[in-house]
Amino acid sequence: MKREPSSLGRDQRGAIFVEHLIAYMPVMFFFMATWQLVDMCAAHLILKRAASAAARAAVVVLPDDPAFYDGVAKDSFSGKRKEDIELAAAMVLATNPHFSSDFTVEVPSGLKGAAPLTATVKAKFHCFAGWVSLVCGPTGVRELSAKSVYAYQGAAYSYDI
């Protein structure tokens, strides 16, 4: 059965499907953007915990005996001491697969006495849906950072090597 070309313009079949698509797309986009925002907020909490773990490790590792850290000087954020502090942050960051493995930990070297120690952890967060650019930007990667401050007591004595 052939149709007249003029009757095709009056045909209403499929109109509900098109209306459904028009209504579905913004709702789905909002849902995905909200999900991504919640995922990023949870990742920021994990990053804060990683900064806390790094700072806590630093207050223990930095003043410790150099014999345990391949002779790296006391209160120096380098070598084996740095590796151990970064390991503390890495173990926490590993709980979220959206973080890249190339994070950075910053801890000041040469602290003395009862100074506050600030550890800063920066990591790249890869969004699960990069096309949701409202939350993560057009690249789908966002750099997050967190700081944690602990009291640093240090060691007032010297170790015999």
Describe the structure.
- It is a single chain.
- With 161 residues, the chain is an alpha+beta fold.
- The protein has one domain (15-152).
- Helices cover 43% and strands 17% of the residues.
- The chain is built from 4 helices and 3 strands; from the N terminus they run H-H-H-E-E-H-E.
- It has a 3-stranded antiparallel beta sheet.
- Helix 2 (15-61) runs antiparallel to helix 3 (79-93).
- The longest helix has 47 residues, at 15-61.
- The radius of gyration is 27 Å and the shape is rod-shaped.
- The protein starts with a helix and ends in a 9-residue tail after the last strand.
Helix-strand topology string: HHHEEHE
Number of strands: 3
Q: Percent helix among the residues?
A: 40-55%
- Going across the major beta sheet, what is the strand order? 1-2-3
Integer average pLDDT: 85
Low-pLDDT residue spans: none
C-alpha Rg (nearest Å): 27 Å
Major beta-sheet overview: 3 strands, antiparallel
Q: Please identify the structural class as seen in this structure.
A: alpha+beta
Summary of the model, kept short:
The chain is an alpha+beta fold and 161 residues long. It has one domain (15-152).
Keywords:
161 residues; alpha+beta; 3-stranded antiparallel beta sheet; 4 helices; 17% strand
Detail the topology: elements first, then pairings.
Layout: H1 5-8, H2 15-61, H3 79-93, E1 104-106, E2 115-126, H4 133-136, E3 141-152
Helix pairs in contact: 2-3
